[in-house]
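3.2 Worked example (two chains)
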Amino acid sequence: MNMQVYLKDGILCVGFNQTSMLFSEVQYSLGHGAMSFSSFPENKFRIMFGTFRSEFLHSMERQETETEFLETIKGYVHGTSEIDPYFNFYMDIYVMFLLCLRVQRPEIPKMLKSFVSEIEGWDIDSVDFSDISESSLWVALLLIEDIRLRTARLKEDFEAITGSDDAGLTPMQRLYLLSEQGRNYLSGEFRTTLRPNHTIKKGEKNLEKIKSTLLENKVDIVEMVEIKTLDDLLRYELYHTLKSNLIIRWCKHCGEFFIVHGRIDMEYCSRVKPGETKPCNIIGATRSYWGSKEGNAVYTEFQKAYKRNHSRQRMGKMSNLQFYEWSEEARKKRGECEAGRLPFNEFKSWLGNKK
């Protein structure tokens, strides 16, 4: 893997130097890639790897060319690549593996070892890659296990950075402690150059053409960093996330980490938790609101009358105007009762609640 990375206006841009089978460049908001990767649902990885494997085996049966197989795969990738930028790297390595498997290239074990972590019980050298069906399944499962390990480590690091222990330490100081404990966040060596963020024709000497390219493509000169591993990209992103004073917080609804934007006291992310239809910042805030009303007798009586009159309005026994005027008056009296200016029994009697 050979990437060129740069930051511009809070956007992380990753170029692949023509080493990717599927992508030329991906872009995403700084911090959001790592947050998304740490919480990415495993079933989506399984579905995509399963789809790639199925298409590959069918392609082999149909004796399609490598180009035809890639065109089919790119159709799936087009709608998936925006879900999570780090998922792109796993899709890319799996497709590269399948293409190597297709012609039984001897460098398959070396390629896999350069990408995945060392995982206990998973011996790449012992796999019979001549068995295309079994080995393609085995590698898909290996990549899923690698994702589990990386995301688990990432969550541990987020907890260390955002936790309440070691009060007084800044997030960057905590990142330094993680590096001292072996995470190597601050010890990575990156080659950095200043260069255009748009390709200038190699060997071009005509200054007028160069000027035209710079103007037409609004080319900036950026600090370009060469990155060779997925772990280094994660380290680079997390370091710059903290350097940019972006706040990492734990969502009180889904339990995943997110970048705070807007209100500094945000407690919920904007993800849609698996099994639900609305984002956490809607569901969580609603549940928090209703939870704060539990045991509140004044609010309970108000809700009882509100539901009764709302039902009457829907059945045509109360006009929209009558319901609106009643609800406005009821809220006013509820406020008076909560403030102690209206006795509870009088409020309950006015609402018409008997029990």
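3.2.1 Second chain
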Amino acid sequence: MNVAVVALLADTTHPRERGRAIGVNDTVSGVAAIILPLVAGPLVALFGLASLAVVSVCLLTMPFVLLLRLHETSPGCYMVQRH
């Protein structure tokens, strides 16, 4: 997944912004990899396993919405629709 995201960022960002975009992605991924497992244990202990599923779905909502806005006009050429 990480390789695919970096490839997508490389295809969709301007060369001047590419390093910052990939850096932000790596930072968010790293922080999430540390924080989310620490939060999951107490969450499951207090509210049960179903609560972890609900929180997971909530966390995946924004990336899913952003994915729906992404359209490939031709192979290797992506456009983000602006509404």
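3.3 Remarks
The CA atoms of residues 7 and 36 lie 25 Å apart.
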